[in-house]
Structures are given as C-alpha cells and as structure tokens.
UniProtKB/TrEMBL annotation:
Keywords: Signal. Residues 1-22 form the signal peptide. Pfam families: DUF1161. This is DUF1161 domain-containing protein. InterPro entries: DUF1161. It comes from Pelomonas candidula.
C-alpha cells in the first residue's frame, strides 16, 4: 500500500469515528449511563433531571442531549 492510500484510509477512518461519536444520544439513555456511573462510585442522594437548555438554573450540567436542546443536570439532595 502506498503512503498516499494509507493516509487517505486513516483520514477516512478518523472522520467516520468522529461522526459516530457526534451522533446525538437520546436523553433517557444518557441519563441512565450517568446514573450507573454515579451509583458505581457509591454516590447517594442525588437527582438527575432532563431540562431545556435555557432552564438549567443553578444546577450542575453533567450532559447534553437531543442535539444540545436539552441538558442533564445533577443536584445533591
């Protein structure tokens, strides 16, 4: 394989990987993943909420979903 062909294949693979990672994730799926990580670390008494991006308030944002229109917020109880 020539260097040019290898470079083109590498660039194509990189672009495909980035496109797959940039795919919007459903909010409920993201919320479940974050909750599982928090539970795994032993975090107790917290609330994760899915809110509109403009209604975050004082809560800590821990994720974004639905192409950035919604945010996942974390609040300790």
């Amino acid at each position: 394989m020539s260097k040019t062909t290898l470079l083109i294949l590498s660039a194509t693979a990189l672009l495909l990987t980035q496109a797959a990672q940039a795919a919007p994730k459903p909010c409920d799926e993201l919320k479940a993943e974050i909750a599982a990580k928090l539970d795994e670390k032993g975090v107790k008494n917290y609330e994760l909420a899915i809110v509109d991006s403009d209604k975050v308030g004082d809560a800590q944002v821990v994720g974004s979903c639905e192409a950035g229109t919604k945010k996942l917020t974390y609040v300790r109880k």
